[in-house]
Specification:
three-stranded antiparallel β-sheet, seven-stranded mixed β-sheet, Arc Repressor Mutant, subunit A, alpha/beta
Amino acid sequence: MNAINLINLARSYWESKVLFVSVRLKIFTILHTEDKSVSAIANILSLNPNSAKRFLDTLVSLKLLQKEGNFYKNTSFSNLYLVENKDSYLGNMVHHCESLWKCWEHLEESVKSGKPVAFKLFKNSSYKHRLKDYVYAMHDIGSVVADEIVSYLNISHYKNMLDLGGGSGAYSIILAKNNPNLKATIFELSDVLKHTKKFIQKAKTKNQISTIPGNFLEDSFGKEEYDLILISNLIHIYDATNNKEIINKTHRALAKKGKIVIHNLVLNNETTPKEATLFDLNMLMGTVSGRVYTQKEVKNWLKEIGFRNIKSYTTTLKTKVIIGVK
């Protein structure tokens, strides 16, 4: 770290805000079909032409747009990830990160009090809107990393999978497409499953994926029914006691030699990776008892409950895939 790094760190939110606004304005979507001039873009989006030019030039500097003469066009990256209605679209994740801005403005309050701020900040907002925002954002992230999870498993060996807290079904969809003989069951809250079923139908995997509404803490997952159970992006919501109970029920639900796969941001130690420490603050502001756990803690839970041959892998998102065998 030097003085220049410090200055850039202090200004880093400038870049995020430019991304948030550009996605909200749908700039990349309107540039998908053809290059456009400043005046054309300003006219379509009802922007001031002068400020629009300054904003678009900033997007060029961020390598999200290209400029040829007086015309702007998407980069190949923007065309892939920032154009609405594409399967590879990550704009929902961008929207979700922007919605968290309100919490991060109150970080100091959570650090001083040790209590979350999200509940009071969002108490007057629509639960349905926030839920959809979250589910679609998690689908974006899941679609990016699911293929990596497949690479850590010999997926062709599995026939019956439970996707615990499967959200949009992103992981089940990718796993099912990689193994036509796999039957996946997504266990989720009933409100979430309304969205899940739409993703399953769109992916044309309805013949392989079913859903069960339920509560992770209150309901049973069955007994020796599955040869693979995936728990992705769930353990950071709960305290250690509840997580151990969820994993214990998972152990009961697995057949002999079945595998548990936990996918989550976890800490290598108390201070790395950076992505996990920042996400831990996000949990401080957004949950009552959730936090990011260390890899050692998660592996110890698995050992205590009876899992063996425990291995871990790191994804390009810096998340961990921790696998244990019953």
